[in-house]
Amino acid sequence: MDVRDSFAVDENTVRQKIIERFRLLWGMRRFLFQATAWGFVLAAAVAFLIPLRFEAITELMPPDRESGAGLASLLAMTRPDGGLGGLAGDLLGLKTSGALFVGILRSHTVEGRIVQHFDLRKVYGVRRGTDARRELENNTQISEDRKSGIIVIAVTDHKPERARDIAHAYVNELDRLVADLNTSSAHRERVFLEERLKSVKQDLDLAAKDFSEFASRNTAIDIQEQGHAMVEAAAALQGQLIAAQAELEALRQIYADTNVRVRSTKARIAELQKKLDQMGGGDLTATANNVDGSLYPSIRKLPLLGVTYSDLYRRTKMQETLYQVLTQQCELAKVQEAKETPSVKVLDEAGLPEKKSFPPRLPIIFMGTGCAFVLAVLWVFGTTTWQETDQQDPGKILVQEICARIRARVGLISRNGSRFRSAREKILTFKRSSNQPG
Q: How far apart are CA 178 and CA 72, in angstroms?
C-alpha cells in the first residue's frame, strides 16, 4: 500500500470517529442541555449568594526630598519586635523614600491600632488580634509605583463606609506614627529647647518674684532715678533752709524771739531740717527698716539697697533675655523639624465606593455554565468509552473492583431511576441503534 493511501485511510478513520462523536453528542443533546441549564442555575445562585465586597483606594504622594534626614532617622527606630525590624535591611539601601511609608503601613503597630479602632475582631468573627490583623492584611493591598513613587492603599470590605474609613485610618496612623518616631537632629533640638524653656521659665518667675518683693518692701522702684530725684529734692530743701535761716537772722535784728514772725520762721526752719534729716538718713540703724515711718528710702540707705536691687534686677533681666533667646531658637527648631519630618500628602482621597469590586457575577455564571457543559460532554464520552471497553480488560476490572469496595464501604449503591444511570442507558441505546444496519 502506498503511503498516500495509508494517510487517506487514517484521515477517513479520524473523520468517522469525529462524526460518531458529534452524532453521539447530538443524540444526547437533551441530557447536555439539562446539564448545562443546571450548571447555569447553580452558577447564578453561587454568584448572587457570594457577599458583595467594595474597594476604597487612597493614593499618597511620595515624601519630599527635604525630609530625607527625617527618613534616615526613622531607621534607627526599627525594632524586630515592633513589626518594622524586617525592613531595616531594605531601608538601609532605601531604593525609594516611599519604601519606608509602605513598611510602616504594614507594621503591626498600625494594623493593631486599626483593628482596635474599628473592632475588627468582631467584624471578622475572630477572637485573637493576630487573626484580625491577618484578615486585615488579606483585605488590604499596599503598593508603590516604582516610576512615580506614588503609594496606593486599596482596602476591601463588605460595607463601603467601613472600607473608606479604614483607608482614611491608614493615612492618619501613618502620619501620627511618623511624627512619633521622628528622631532627627531638629527634633532632638526642639525637645531639648522645650525642656530648657521650662526650667528657664521657672527661674524667671522666681527672679521676678524676688525682685518685686524686694522693691515693694523697700519702696525701691528705680534706685538710680530715685537717687537723682532725692538729691535734687534735698538740694532744694537745703536752699530753702538756708534762706529761712537768713530770714531768721534778719528778723532777730529787728524783733525779739517772742515775736510771731520769729517763731514762725523758727518752726519753718525746724520742719525743713526734719525733712532734710529724713532724706539724708540720719542714723542708719534707726532707719534700717524704715522705722521712722518715711515713705521712701533715705539717701544714705540708697547705696546699700542699690547693691541688692542691681543684683536682683540683673538676674531678672538675664533670665528674661535667656527666655527670649530660647523661645526664638525653639520656634526655629520647630520649623526645621517640620521640614525634616516626612509629611503624608494625599493625592487621591478614598471616597465612598459606588460599585462593587467582587464578585464578578457574569464571569462566574459563564464559567459555571461552560464547566457544566464540558463536564456533561466528558461524562458522555467517558460513559461511551467505558461501555466500549472489553469486560476482560485489566484496567476495567481494576476500576470495577475499586468501585465495588467503595460502594460496599460507603453504602452508595446506585438505584433504579438514577439520573446518571438513565443517561448511561440512553447512551447504550443510541449506540446499539447506530450500530444496526440501515
A: 12
Quote the percentage of the chain above a pLDDT of 90: 15
Residue 149's alpha-carbon distances to 93, 131, 214, in angstroms, are: 16, 31, 65
Element containing residue 438 per DSSP (H, E): none
In the chain, which residues fall in CATH 3.30.70? 53-184+341-348
CA distance 156 to 178: 25
What secondary structure, in 3-state letters, does 227-263 show?
A: HHHHHHHHHHHHHHHHHHHHHHHHHHHHCCCCCHHHH
Alpha helix stretches (DSSP H) within 150-184? 160-181
Question: pTM of the predicted model, to two decimals?
Answer: 0.52
CATH number of 53-184+341-348: 3.30.70
Has residue 84 got a pLDDT over 50?
Answer: no
Q: What angle do CA 404, 409, 412 make, to 5 degrees?
A: 70
Cβ contact 32:380 at 8 Å: yes
Calculate what percentage of the chain has a pLDDT beyond 70: 68
Burial (CB < 10 A; 0-12, 13-18, 19+), residue 151, is buried
Rounded CA-CA distance 389/400 in Å is: 12
- How far, rounded to the nearest angstrom, does the alpha carbon of residue 322 sit from its chain's CA centroid? 36
Cell of 379: 461524562
pLDDT, position 297: 54
| Contact predicate 136/111, CB 8 Å | yes
